[in-house]
Automatic annotation (TrEMBL):
Protein name: ATP-binding cassette subfamily B protein/subfamily B ATP-binding cassette protein MsbA
Main location: membrane
Species, as recorded: Paenibacillus harenae
Gene3D superfamilies listed in its UniProt record: ABC transporter type 1, transmembrane domain, P-loop containing nucleotide triphosphate hydrolases
Top-rank taxon: Bacteria
Lineage: Bacteria, Bacillati, Bacillota, Bacilli, Bacillales
EC numbers, comma separated: 3.6.3.-
Amino acid sequence: MHSPIPPSPSPTLRQLTAMLWKKLGKGRVLFGASVILSLGETVVMLLVPLLMEIYFNRLELGQLPYIYNMMLISTVIVIVLLGLTILGFYYKQKSMSALQRDVSLELADEAQRLPLQKATASHSADLAQRIWADGDKSSWILSTLFHGIGSQAIMLVLAAIYMLWLQWEIALGLFVLMPLGILGSHLLRRKLGVIGLAVADQEAAVRQCQQDALQGMETLRAFGAEGWMMDRFVVERHKLNGLYMQRMWWNELVNGLTVSLSLLITWGSVLAVAWLAVQGKLQIGALMAFFVLVWRIYNPLVNIGRMWGEVQQNLGQTARISALWRAKKEPNNFSPTLNHAADSLSGIEQQHSIRWSNVSFGYDEHAGIQNDQANDVNASKSEANRLLLQQFSLELRPGSFTAIVGPSGSGKSTAAKLGAGLLLPDEGEVSICGSNPNYNAEYARQFVAYVPQSPYLFAGTIRDNLLFGKPDASEAELVDAAKAAAAHAFIEALPNGYDTPLKEHGSSLSGGQKQRLAIARAMLSGRPIWIFDEATSALDTDTERFVMESVRERTLMHGSTLLVIAHRLTTVQDADAIIVMENGLIAEQGTHELLLQRPEGLYRKLWNKN
Ligand SMILES: Nc1ncnc2c1ncn2[C@@H]1O[C@H](COP(=O)(O)OP(=O)(O)OP(=O)(O)O)[C@@H](O)[C@H]1O
C-alpha cells in the first residue's frame, strides 16, 4: 500500500477531500447514492410547508375531497422518501466504514514502514491514536461535508427558492445574508484547527500514560509507585479536561455567533412577512408556509455553522495523520538486478556474510513523529546528533562464529542492529548477503534471523509464535527446532503443548523460556545469518551451553554465519573471532586465547571480572 503524500503538514480542506475521495475508490458510487438518497429527508422537511400552504388555501375555498386525496398521496410520498433516506443512511455507513477501514489500514501500513528508529522513538500509544482515532475523525470530514453540510445547504437553497416563489423581495434579502450563518466558524477556523490538534495530541498523551500504567503494573507495584503513576495520569487528564473546556468555549462562541446571526436573518424575514400580511399582500396559506419555511432556513444555517466548525477542528487534527504519511519511510527500491546481487555473486566470501564498511551512526534525538515539517521525507537527521559509531568496519566470514563483547553502552547492539538491517547507517554501507539495506531494508533483512535479549511473543499459541518464521514448516521441523533450543520439554509439559495460548507478551512464561522460544523460532526460519543479541542471557549455564552447542552445530551444517553478543564471556570463548568494543569503536579483536595474551587488553580485564 502506498499513499500519495499530503503536500503539507496540515493539508487544506480541498487537498484532504480530494485525497479521501480518491481513497473511496469503488465506494464512490455507494457514497454518491447515499448522498442523493439522504436528500429524501430534506425533501420531506420541505414538503411540510408546501402541504400546509395547499391545505390552508384549499380549506379557505372549502375543497375537502381535494384535501383528502392530497393527504393520502403525500403520506405515501413521505413514507417512500423516508424509506429511501434509511437506505441512504445504510449506504453512508457502509461506504464510510469502508473508507475508515482503508484509511486506518493504510496508516497502519505507513507505521509499519517507518524506519525502526523513528517508530521506536514514538510512543506506541501515540501511533495507535494516529492510526485509529485521528484516521477515523479525518475520514468523517467527507461525510460531514457531503451528508451534513451538503444536505443542509440543499435544504437552505430549496427553502430559499420556495420563498422566492412566495415573496421574491424577502427571499432575495435572505440569499444575500445567508453566508453570515457560517461567518463565526469561518472567522475562527484557525483557532478551531489549533484546538482540534491540541486536543488530539493530549488525548494521545493520556493514552500513553494509561498504557504505561497498565504495561508497567508489575514494576509500579514492586516499587509501590502506583501513586506516582496516578499523579502523572491526573496531570495529563487534567490538561485534557482544560483543553476540552477550551474547545467547548470556542464551540460555544461559534454557536453563539452562528445562532445570533441566523436569528437576526430569520427575525428580519419574519418581521418583513408580518408587515406584508398586515398589508394584505399574502394569502393565509402562504403566510403559514412562510412561518414553517423560516425554520427551514434557520435550522440549516445554524447546523452548517456548527458543522463547519467541526470540520475545522477535525482538519487541525489531520496534521497528526499527515505527519505519519509524510514521515520518511524505510527504503524499498526493488530492482531484481540489485536485490539479487547476492545470488549472482560468484565468490563464496560474499555470501552468508555481513560487511560494515566505514559505517557511522548516531541516534536522532528527534526521531519521533512530529506534527510539523520535521517529518518531511526530505528532512535530514538533526545536525546535533552525536555519532555513536564512527567509521565502523567489520566483515563476518561466511559460516563463521563471531562474537561482540564490551562494556555496557559501548555500541554492541547498535552495531548488530545495523548488521541486521534494522537500523540504517548515516554514512558508510552495510552489506547483508550482498544486499544493501539502505537500498531495500526489507529485502536485506530476510537473510537474517535476529534474536534480541527480550524477544517479543505475539498473541496466539506457541505454535503460531514459532511458525511465523517459517509458516510452511512441518511438525517434525517444528519439534526439531524446539528440541535444539531446549524448549520442547517445557512446551510438552504445558496443558495444551504447542497449542497453548500465550498471555499478553508471553507473560505466563519465564524469561528463559521466552528466550528459548525465540531461538527455536530463529532456528526454524532457516535464514543464512543468525544474530543473537544477549539471546541466552536468561538461561542457566548448562542450558546455555546445550543451546549454544546445537546452534553451532546447525550453523556449521548449513554454512550459516553466527554473530553473538554476550556479557557472559564463557558463552563466546569458542568463537572464531571476538570483537571487543569500547565507546563505539573496535578496541581489539582476535580469538579468546590471543586476546587473553594481551596483559593490558580490555578483553582480559573483562574476562578476569567475569
Ligand atoms: N533507541 C535509542 N535511542 C537513543 N539512544 C540509544 C538507543 N538505543 C541505544 N542508545 C544509546 O546508544 C548507546 C549504545 O547502546 P547499545 O545498546 O548499542 O550498547 P550495548 O553495548 O549493546 O549496551 P548493553 O551491553 O548494555 O546492551 C547507549 O549510550 C544507549 O543509551
